[in-house]
Amino acid sequence: MKPDFVLTEENAHAVADICIRLDGLPLAIELAAVRIKLLSPQAMLARLDNRLKLLVGGATDLLPHQQTMRAAIDWSYDLLDEDEQKLFRSLTVFVGGFTLEAAEALWQRIEAQKPDIFDELLSLANQSLIRGKELPGAEPRFSMLETIREYGSEKLHEAGEATVVGHAHAEYFLTMAEQAEPELSGAAQATWFDRLELEHGNFRAALKFAFDEGDDDTALRLACAFWRLWLVRGYLSEGHEQLSKVLS
C-alpha cells in the first residue's frame, strides 16, 4: 500500500464503494490496496468492471492461490467435479440471485438427463461459491458474490455455453412472467408483484438476451407480461424505454 495514503472526505466515498464492489472480501480488498500506489481510489473504482484483471499482485511470500483473486477462485473451482463446474458456470446467468426452483428449471433445460442438482448445489455452497438467504414468506434465495459471478461468467463463455444457458434462462423467466401477468390484477396481486420485483434483475437480463439474440418474439412477450410491474412499482422510464425498443 502507498505509505502516505490518507483517508479523506474526498476519497472516503470511493474507498467505501470499492469495498462494496469487492463484496467485502479481505483478499480482494488487500489486492486492491496494492494498486493504490498507481491509482487513486476514484480511478480504481472506475476500473472495477473487470475486477479479476485488476486484482493481482499479492505478496510473493503468499501461497500461489492467495496472490491473485482469479487464482483464489480457481482453487475452489478446480475442487469441483465436471457436473458441479458446469452448474456453477450456468448459475452465473442469474442476476440478483435465484431460487432452488429456478436453478432446477434452468438445469433441466440444459441437462435433461440429470435433473437433480441438490448435491451439486451443496458442493458449491461448501466451496463458498454460492450462498443462501432466507426471506420472510418467500422461497430461500441463492446468490453469488459479484467477483465470483464475474469469474464464472468468463468460464461460461470460454466453455461456449453462454447462448444455450441464456436461452434456458430467458425461457424460464418468460414462463414466469406470462404465468404472473393475469395474477397482477387479481386478489393475490401484491404477492405476485413482490415476486416479480425480486426477480427484476433476471427479467432485465432475459430481455437483454432476447434483444442481443434478435429474438423479437421473446422480447415482445416479456415486455407485454412485465409492463404492469413497471407501471405500478414506479419503473416508468425503464418501461417506456423497453417497450419503445420492443416496438421499434
Account of the protein in words:
The structure is a single chain. This protein is mainly alpha-helical and 248 residues long. It folds into three domains: 9-78; 80-159, Winged helix-like DNA-binding domain superfamily/Winged helix DNA-binding domain (Arc Repressor Mutant, subunit A, Orthogonal Bundle), CATH 1.10.10; 160-247, no CATH class. It has helices spanning 9-21, 26-34, 41-46, 51-54, 69-77, 82-91, 100-110, 118-126, 146-158, 162-180, 189-198, 200-213, 216-232, 236-247, and strands spanning 98-99, 131-133, 141-143. It has a three-stranded antiparallel sheet. Helix 6 (82-91) packs across helix 8 (118-126), helix 6 (82-91) crosses helix 9 (146-158) and helix 7 (100-110) packs across helix 10 (162-180). The longest helix has 19 residues, at 162-180. The model is unreliable at 58-67 (pLDDT under 50).
How would you sum up this structure in a few lines?
The chain has 14 helices and three strands. It has 248 residues and is mainly alpha-helical.
What does the main sheet amount to? Answer: 3 strands, antiparallel
Overall tally of structural domains: 3
Strands in their spatial order, largest beta sheet? 1-3-2
Tally of DSSP helical segments:
14
Radius of gyration: 20 Å
State the helical fraction: 55-70%
Mean pLDDT: 83
Terminus-to-terminus distance: 51 Å
Sketch the topology as an H/E string, one letter per element: HHHHHHEHHEEHHHHHH
User: What structural class results from the helix and strand content?
Assistant: mainly alpha
Question: What proportion of the residues form beta strands (DSSP E)?
Answer: under 5%
Tell me how many strands there are.
Answer: 3
Per the principal axes of the C-alpha atoms, what is the gross shape? globular
Return residue spans where pLDDT drops below 50 for at least 5 consecutive residues.
Answer: 58-67
